[in-house]
Q: What sequence folds into this?
């Protein structure tokens, strides 16, 4: 049995309005994809009810991410500096800045997330949604199957904070190649 998803989407199709509903009720919606004077971009809307970490510390060598908070509050740790962003506020994270973020609210957080260039971010959310709905993630959101871990790592378009990039390329990149060979696809 391979890891293919039951429905596959062509790379160029835009699932505008597609919403992924996670088991805990949080949603990720593909809001917009386009190109402007700054280049290609992707905009995703996050709606999260429970407070806490939304990811682990990581960095992207090429991507710039901007967050605009519509409701609630987000806490960001960017290169060791803490930022709290409330309704109407915005923060931009530039390439190679190590960052992590949290829902700081006791109620729903709604935030728009812009990614430039889009990279494989939407694929990452689709994969994590699939794995979480199938019960294939640990309580910390890490794939239990090392081949899915490799596929997920490849979709973050970057590196985890901590392990040296070369180690990640060899170990996680190797798992990603092995996953592809065995048919694990987003």
A:
């Amino acid at each position: 049995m391979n890891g293919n998803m039951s429905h596959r989407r062509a790379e160029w199709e835009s699932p505008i309005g597609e919403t992924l509903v996670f088991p805990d009720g949080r949603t990720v919606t593909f809001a917009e994809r386009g190109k402007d004077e700054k280049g290609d971009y992707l905009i995703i809307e996050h709606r999260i009810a429970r407070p806490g970490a939304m990811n682990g510390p990581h960095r992207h060598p090429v991507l710039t991410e901007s967050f605009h908070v519509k409701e609630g509050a987000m806490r960001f740790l960017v290169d060791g500096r803490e930022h709290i962003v409330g309704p109407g506020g915005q923060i931009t994270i530039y390439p190679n800045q190590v960052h992590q973020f949290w829902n700081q609210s006791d109620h729903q957080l709604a935030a728009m997330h812009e990614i430039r260039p889009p990279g494989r971010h939407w694929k990452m959310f689709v994969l994590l949604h699939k794995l979480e709905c199938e019960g294939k993630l640990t309580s910390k959101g890490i794939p239990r199957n090392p081949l899915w871990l490799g596929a997920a790592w490849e979709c973050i378009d970057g590196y985890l904070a901590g392990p040296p990039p070369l180690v990640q390329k060899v170990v996680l990149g190797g798992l990603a190649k092995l996953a592809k060979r065995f048919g694990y696809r987003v």
